[in-house]
Each structure stands twice: as C-alpha cells, then as structure tokens.
C-alpha cells in the first residue's frame, strides 16, 4: 500500500530510533482504527531502516482462542539461537522472556521489535509487554506496539498493560488519523470522484485502496468481508439494531432504532464496542459510510424494504422530519403515494438551496409515478422536471418530458402554458444542437400567443426567441426582439422575462456595441439574483465571459468565466460550469497558455455532459491545439467538431472550426483546400457582420490566394496582416494578447531579427509545425545558428514540480489565496488546494509562507 | 495503441546519473507513464545531451503529453511512426 500523509509519524519513528542505543531502549505505541495503516507505516519504517537496525516482527491474530505467546514464537523464528531453542522446548515462559531480553542486548545495532495488533494479544503476550516495559531501558531496542484504539475500551485487558507501559518505560504514543481529502486524491491518482471517495471511506486508507482496486463495485467484497466479520459476534438484538441503522444514511435517531426494532437501546452498546457505530447525543451513525453500505447490502431486498417502511412510518409521525429523508425512505420503501407526496417537495427545497442535482434526482423519482396524478398536476410536475433536468444538463430527458407535458397542456386547452412549453422546447433543442427545430418552435410559440392579449407569457417567449437570435449572431434581430421582451417584462413586472431579455440584449451587444454589453448584462445579473434564479445568473455570467472571449477581450472574459465556474459549481449547475470551463480552455489556448488549456480539456473530457455547445467548444479547442502543436492523429477531432457545428448552423460554432480546419490544411501544405473549408462560413460571417469571424476566415482565404484585400468589416489585426503590414499586425496581436498570432505575423516578415523572435515564441509554445517553417526560412536567409529553444520543464527542476505546480507556486509567491489561484488558473478552489498541498509536500515545508520562501531560495520563482 | 517518436530539447543538457537517484528517477518516469497508459521504449540521446528522440507506445498524443507533464519533461514534437528494418523484405 502506498504511504500517504504519514511523513510526520515516519519522522517521529526515525527520531525515536535515533534516541535508542545500548542501555537506552524505548517503546512506541502506534494506535488507530482498523485499516488506518498502522502495519503499512511500521513496515515502511522497518524497510527504510533495514540497514540501520535488525527487525523482529511478531503478530497477534484475531483467533477466538489466540496462540499462547504467538508473537514471541514469531520472533524466535526470526531471532534463532538461544531464544529459538528455549521457545521450542517446554521451558517455563519466564525463560522465554529472559532469552528474548538477552538477545536484545545487541552490542551495536539496535533491534526494532514489532508487536502487531496487541488488542488481540493473549494473556502471555500481555505479560511479555509488561516484562519488556520494565526492562527496556537495559537493552538496545525500539519496541513498537500497534493496536486498534477503538477496540480497547475501559474494560479491555490491554488497557491496564498500556497504562503500565506509559508509567514504567520511556514511551511515546502515535495516533494515526484518517487521510485528508487531498491524501485520498493522491491515492486516487487523479481518478474522478476523490471527494466522494473521501466521504464514503472517512479517509481510511484500507477502504480507499480497496475501493480503488475494484472500481466496478460500490462496496468491494474485501470490504464487505472485513465489515461483516466485525458484525458477526453481535447478539441478535444488537444485530437487528445495526441492520436498521444501516438503512438510515448519516445519523440515525436511537429512538427510531428502538421503536422500529422493539429492542432495547442498551443493546446498541455492543455495536459501539465493536467500533461499528459511534454515538452522539441521541443518535448513532456508522463509523464509515462504506461499512453502512456493506451491512445494508448484506440483507435481502425484501427485508430492507420492510426496514425502510418502518423508518418512513416513524418519520411521518414527526413534523420535524426533513423532506429529503422522507423522500429517500419513500423511494426505498417503493411507496408511490409517499413518493408523490414527498419527492416533489424535497426537490423544491433542494433547488431553493441551490442543490440542483439533488432536485433533479427527486423529480426524476417522482415522474416515474406521474401517471397516477390528474392531468394538470401531472403537466406541472413534468414541467418542473424539465427545468430541473435542464439545469443539470440532461437535455435528452428534459426534451422527452417536455413533449409529454406539451401534449397534456394542449389537451387541457392551456394556451399560455403550452406556448411557454413550446418555447422551452426550442431552448432544449438548441442545447441538443437541433437549431432549425429551435428556431421553428420559437416562432410557433410566438404564433400561439398572437390571438390572446399580451402578458407575461408573451414577454418570456419573446425573450427566449431573442436569445436564440443572439446565439445565431443575428445581432439586430436579437436586439429588436429583446427590446420588445424587455418592454413587456417591465410592463408586467415579471423578473424571469426581465432577466432573460437583458441577458439576450447584453450578450448581443458584445458584437454591436461592446462597451455597453457589460453594463446591460450586469443589470440582468442583478435582476436574476434578486429573483433567486440560479440558472439565469449562471447563464448571464457565462455569456459575459464567452461573449467577451469571442471578441478577444480576454481579461474581462477570464474574470467572468471564473465567476461562472464558481457560481455554477457551487450549485450543481454542471453544464453551465462545463461550458464556462470549455470556454476558459479556449481563452487559455488563444492566449498561449497551452498547458493550462490542455489540462482543462482533459478534465472536461471525463465529465459526462450532454450539452452540445460545450462538446463543440471542447472538440474545437482540442483539435486546434493539436494542429498547432503538430500532434498526429488528433485532427479527427476537428472533423467531428465540424459535423456537430454544422448541425447547429450557428456562426459562433462554425467559424472557429472552419478556421482550424483551414489552418490544418495550410500547415499540411494544402492551401488549395482552404476555400472549400471556409467559403460558406465566410459568407455567413459577412452576412451577419461579425468582425472577428470575417477577419479570421478572410485571413485563410488570403493565405490560399483567394483574397487580395482585407474584406470589409474584418477585425484590425487580421486586416493589417492581409494588407501585408506584418509589423503593425504583430503589435496589434500583442495588444490583444495572442502570442501565437504575434509570432505568425512576425514570421510573415523578411527581417531575420523578427523571424528569430517568432522562432523563440513558437518554440516556447511548443508549436512544432510553425517552428519548422520559421527555421526553414531562417536557414534560407543564411542564418546558421538558430536561437536556443526556451524550455521551462527540465530534469534540473529541483523541486520536482510539474508545470502546473510551478504556475500555482508563482501565484502562491504573490500571496494569492486558493480561491484567487483557482480564479486565475480556471480551476476549482479544491483543485487549487490539491496543487498547493502537493507543492508543500514536494518542497517539504509546512505552510504557504515557507513554500514561497523556499521557492525563492531555490530560484523556482522570482524573488 | 500507436507508436510515437517524441523529440525533446534540454537547453541545459540532459543527464540521468548512474546512481540510486538516477534509477529512482527512471522508475518514477515509468510509474507516471503507466498512469497514462503510456510505455517508454527507449531513447536516443545526442552526445551533448541537448536533444533526445524517445520511442513511446501510447493511446494518443495527448496521453504522451500528460505523461511528459507528470515527468517534467519537455516536448517539442510528437510524430506517429512505424518500424522499418533492412530485413523487412526478406
């Protein structure tokens, strides 16, 4: 087993060994619960000291009748000589003890005597401990005793022995605690779900490694065996109480256990003694969640259901019972009436608290029984499920439920509700990249409302239609429709329509009047916050970020994208967090922070997000990064992105992929392919008047010899480059903040100095194909000596830190907190925390301040 | 699984000492590679230690890059390659 977060006890053991010498022996008691890693620690320590000390190892076994003096027999086999002879004979045991002591008078090297798991020791071994404690100061030995402190209660025979050792021998006690979340993450080596793993296992390294070793099962067989072995000796009443407690996640009221089983609370004592449960004031809970799961799974389905019924009955009688608990036991008891009563209310409560994933789960449970409800209520429940599943990015499910709801509403003749459901359908279709359907349904929804007097529904539908136009970059259309929606929303005082309209208009302004965009969107943000609409807040934050990013205002973009991730992740708004992460990757990539972009992309690739826009951004950035790095095989990602983007028909999705494919063709020496790859998208960009799209696509047409002049409306840096003013273009790109583009512009020149600068930038980025091109041009100009490639990652890096850790270290040196580091690097504060603790570990320092100081001393960061 | 030629530049020269630390460093590289499903075959190192050409088997270029990042090794270029030897046609 890998040793994690045990540097301190290891150091303590080494220090104690150093104190040990002839006539200066001592004891170390290593305590901790089962599986906490006592044996692992002591083994690692002995292995480390193999050259400095001899090791005698004796273990006690969990036998119902332990071997008399089992550990001393183990030791005799290792020690051989006189001790082995005495132990093999029928000599009285004090002769064995004396022989052991004699053998420990080792002249030079100390002996490490390990007595393992002494909570299981027989009487003879306990006497041996007392014997050694009295005389350890005479010999050259470090006696390490391990035991489970949770099993040694006041009555346990070992208690007295431990007290004795503490009073008569020089001794220390090491208590091994559970691993921190960061420690569990380290064991999990980057596998997803380390936080959940920490929660389930309580940081117990045995459970952690067992779960990691069998990823397919919720509870590995080895864990079940270990847990059931502990539960085995319980009396029938104690076992019944334990089994009932096992169906109650978290804290179980003692009153509940007693009421549901008919047994006495005193019988719980056994479970506490066995270390299975721990007690609080009036509740008990399992010491480890994974043990609860193991005990729960050991019963038949039928028995479990009965237990859940009993718990549900008890909870229903109490007005203080939480809705989430009621819904959980209703579901486990498979009681449809109770599910329909409690699950929707639990969902509502969850989404009020921003727990959107939980809300989704509750609604999903409820809708499986929706057919039992009358039409109007059913449509209402379906509608709420649509919102909840949309919030967590389950668009397939949302779409299906929306279809059912719409059908019901039409049957019921609810025109306004049906129009709103149709608009919702349009929104979901957009997330599923069915943009044609989306635009058609938005138009349908508007048409459905025409015959009736304008009201709240009109405002909401118009706002949705406006945002679809904005997304298609039909900017004048979005601003016009958005304005209508805004007026209606204000007239009818509807916060939902108000935030949606402001969000759509503000996002559109990035492309028409960028200076106004932020202010409009901040107004929308205020309104969404005031209305408590988490999703809309995330949506507006995200559009502030991605809109600014699309017009290459990176500082603004990065700030808002980080804010989006923080907001959305804290509220389980998974797809909005994922979209903002994908966009952060694009922003990092465009700003030449390629390692950071790749890390974000890797994280995203492992998340199951159905949202098509996120997928398209992800594939596009991945493909473009691989193209610029010259990585083989990966351009297939761009083709896939192109296929998905084509289905949306949206310029914002099409243009970056088209440009990426043209760049790949050009770098591969096929400029003639560019026209076919970007032609149609270029036309679309011209029609919609989108400057950065016109510029970039026009640039590739110019590279392919299809354009001579900059197209009207092209953004400045591209226009300058097409005009042939590469110096001005490079300066313009520098101001925008895109180093690769700076280098590409410089590489268009015929000045060796500019080319050398381009080479350095490109080599620093790791842009192999362009490096080769520039190197070839320099050679053609007769330049012999190419500039040295700047490399940041070398074997010489003394701290052994990764690129990312160096980035974190640099921010740490500037005094940034974890949330600030997270915001700057577009990672979660938790990930930032992991990096920081890894850095502290690698530098061998205790805190951030020391880390910064050590890093400066070693020249890892500027001082 | 594809085979890749990975080119790396070491501005300050490259050295793995023939000591316990050097051996530990190689094992660390192997372990980090394994976490990404990447296998390091062998490397050709220029005499001055400034350039290496390393043969890797791996699932994708990005896996090779992730392994390189974990190992603090630079990557200039990754090329997918196949083996050809003089006796191929015999």
Description:
- The complex is a heterodimer of chains A (863) and B (90).
- Chain A is mainly alpha-helical and 863 residues long.
- Among the domains of chain A are: 7-177, Rossmann fold (3-Layer(aba) Sandwich); 181-211, no CATH class; 600-780, Serine Threonine Protein Phosphatase 5, Tetratricopeptide repeat (Alpha Horseshoe); 803-857, Arc Repressor Mutant, subunit A, CATH 1.10.10.
- Chain A contains 45 helices and eight strands.
- A five-stranded parallel β-sheet of chain A has the order 2-3-4-1-5, sandwiched between helices. Chain A has a three-stranded antiparallel β-sheet with strand order 6-8-7.
- In chain A, strand 7 (277-279) and strand 8 form a beta hairpin.
- In chain A, helix 21 runs antiparallel to helix 22 (415-431) and helix 30 (574-590) runs antiparallel to helix 31 (594-605).
- The longest helix of chain A has 18 residues, at 395-412.
- Chain A starts with 6 loop residues before the first helix and ends in a 6-residue tail after the last helix.
- In chain B, a hairpin with a 5-residue loop joins strand 2 and strand 3.
- Chain B has a single domain, classed as ORF SCO4226, nickel-binding ferredoxin-like monomer (Alpha-Beta Plaits, 2-Layer Sandwich).
- The model of chain B has no long low-confidence stretch (mean pLDDT 85).
- Chain B is α+β, with helices and mostly antiparallel strands.
- A four-stranded antiparallel β-sheet of chain B has the order 2-3-1-4.
- In chain B, helix 1 runs antiparallel to helix 2.
- The A-B interface holds A 189-190, 595, 598, 602, 622, 626, 629-634, 763, 766, 768, 771, 788-797, 800-804 and B 2, 4, 9-12, 14-16, 25, 35, 60-62, 65-66, 68-70, 72-80.
